[in-house]
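Design job #97: recover the sequence.
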């Protein structure tokens, strides 16, 4: 088996397991003429499609908004009666019946957050009409750090649900890890930009001021224009209102820089700009 094929199986394995669990829990439905393939193929497609819808919110990290958007998709993956997502401090989202159980969740997952090991528990609900009698909580981890939990509920104890919840939680953890990588990449870019700003050569500043000074007596108007160019250039270079800029502003800054360099080198400097 090739490396790429193995990678696909590793990524899809947990979701296909969850898809099998969904297929087992769903009741039979009349065939539609538009259905194609076997029931297993359709369940696999639905599982992958649901996962693709749950992934984008999770790529924003584990927040209340991302949890709320992903919870319904994740519950659909597991085919369970209720599902909630927590961080280390509170319930972020609840989807399904029995939302009153949300008040007990953090106490039930306290040990999991400390140990990083999944746990199953009786719901302890006193409402005889409540269908949620059993739950399983599994950790959401990134780099061995427990960021939160995924908790799935069912009417009765189920080893299959416990295993499927663990696989889905691992898939969610991968999405959260990718979110952290995205943030790390953004922070790296921002740090590089700040470092470049900090490295504006003092020699450039001194030389620019010396060039401006050389025009003060011979061409005061030129000196005034260069001084304004220098002020605008340094103000733009050390701006603090954001790390990104428009192409137009960047090109304008380049023009200001070149104006200052031309003041020093005159005709010895030839510059050609090509902008797509």
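Job complete. Output follows.
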């Amino acid at each position: 088996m090739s490396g790429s094929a193995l990678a696909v199986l590793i990524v899809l394995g947990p979701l296909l397991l969850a898809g099998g669990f969904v297929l087992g829990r769903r009741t039979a439905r009349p065939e539609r003429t538009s259905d194609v393939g076997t029931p297993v193929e359709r369940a696999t497609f639905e599982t992958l499609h649901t996962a693709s819808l749950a992934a984008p919110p999770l790529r924003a990290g584990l927040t209340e908004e991302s949890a709320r958007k992903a919870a319904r998709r994740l519950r659909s993956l597991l085919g369970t009666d209720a599902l909630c997502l927590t961080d280390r401090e509170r319930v972020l989202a609840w989807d399904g019946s029995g939302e009153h159980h949300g008040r007990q969740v953090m106490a039930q997952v306290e040990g999991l957050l400390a140990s990083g090991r999944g746990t199953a528990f009786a719901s302890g609900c006193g409402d005889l009409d409540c269908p949620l009698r059993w739950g399983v909580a599994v950790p959401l981890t990134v780099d061995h750090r427990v960021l939160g939990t995924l908790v799935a509920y069912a009417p009765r104890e189920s080893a299959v649900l416990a295993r499927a919840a663990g696989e889905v939680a691992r898939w969610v953890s991968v999405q959260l890890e990718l979110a952290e990588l995205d943030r790390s990449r953004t922070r790296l870019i921002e740090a590089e930009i700040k470092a470049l700003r900090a490295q504006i050569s003092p020699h450039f500043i001194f030389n620019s001021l010396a060039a401006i000074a050389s025009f003060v007596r011979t061409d005061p108007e030129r000196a005034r224009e260069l001084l304004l160019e220098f002020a605008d250039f340094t103000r733009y270079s050390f701006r603090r209102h954001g790390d990104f800029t428009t192409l137009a502003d960047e090109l304008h800054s380049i023009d200001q820089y070149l104006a200052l360099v031309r003041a020093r080198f005159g005709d010895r400097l030839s510059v050609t700009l090509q902008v797509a």
